[in-house]
Amino acid sequence: MSSISDQVDRLAAWEAREVILHRVLPYFGLAVGALLATFAPAPGAFPLAPTLAVTAAAGCWVTWFVTLHPGWVGRRALMAAYYVGLLAFAAVLVLASPWYGLFAWVGFLHAFLVLPGRWRFAGVAATAVLVATAQSVGPPSSPSHWLLWSVLVLFNMGVASGVSWFGTITERQNANRKQLIEELAEANRRLAETARENEGLHAQLLTQAREAGVLDERQRMAREIHDTLAQGLTGIITQLEAAEQTRDRSADWRRHVDNALALARESLTEARRSVRALRPEPLETARLPDALAELTERWSTINGVRGEMSTTGDPRPLHPEIEVTLLRAAQEALANVARHAGAARVGLTLSYMADVVTLDVRDDGVGFDVAEQSGTPRRPDGGYGLTAMRQRVARVGGELAVESEPGGGTAVSASVPALHGGAG
């Protein structure tokens, strides 16, 4: 931004110096011409008094049109009249004394100041004639004088035309440069405004991200509580109820109480790990297929239901979030079977494919109407059920499919992306 401002300032300073030059040089030429005409008169010069009178009139002409009314420069007709008058004064003064060729030379500069387009070259040509007349000490009077005058006219016209051409190109370039600088300044101004708006938007996004983070953490804790404490407490209650029913059979009673104690310890451990956002303990010490096999065996022992676990494809390490999702889906599916299915057999199949890993949990229990359950976000007992499973699977870009019918058992299938997650 500062460099553009510097360029604007330099361009404005140069234009200001040009304006001063255009305003000062006419008076300088008149002053020097008058001094030389007074103290070093040329042969055949006009009388001094009328010459000085014309000099004063020329000065007044320039003062009125250029110095006192700089805003008139944009008025073409008025400036054309001014330039014709300037040439007329210059012609009279050059005829009065060749020293006024210094004033006539101003016509080159003012042609660019007041004349538009190609009219500048006409002004330059007329000025070249006047300057050549001054340089040849008056109008031509002999063949040799005519030759000298013609050479001077052609020389002055050629040099002035070349300078005029390059001056025109330079003026266009300056105009384009000025426009470009103005556009860059405007673009920088807009960028500054955009930056300020972005600061406000950034602050807003930070606030939204913070709120989203809080909400996401609440949802994570809700899922973890459901997957650890809720399921554990449900299992404990189930075991204690079974112990109550078998209090007359000490062996069964002890087994149910031991199962309840084991579930309580396991739930407490998983709850602590959930608070710390750690992976479930089974995945810390074993691969996913082994963790699922251990889960199935432990669940089968506790619930007295035959359970089988099988793996197809080439087992490989997956992203931790993928493995946690599949383990939690298996836990939820088995918990649902224990609470609602009344099944005699449950089978888990973990299938590794090229891009997808699928976990299928099938039971031969009482089944249910999928259409009724799919629209219910929470069961009457307070659990999240299939909704929680669906949300957890969808969170990693997977899909959950449920097939069931009353009396026909239930099949739950969780398909998730096979994202690689570590060394094998």
From TrEMBL:
**Where is this protein localized, as stated in its record?**
Cytoplasm
Q: What is its main location?
A: cytoplasm
Q: Which reaction does it catalyse?
A: ATP + protein L-histidine = ADP + protein N-phospho-L-histidine
* GO MF assignments: 4 iron, 4 sulfur cluster binding; metal ion binding; phosphorelay sensor kinase activity; protein dimerization activity
Q: Has keyword Transport?
A: no
| Superkingdom, taxonomy of origin | Bacteria
Q: What is its EC number?
A: 2.7.13.3
Name of the protein this chain belongs to: Oxygen sensor histidine kinase NreB
- This chain's source organism reads Micromonospora viridifaciens
Classification from the root reads: Bacteria, Bacillati, Actinomycetota, Actinomycetes, Micromonosporales
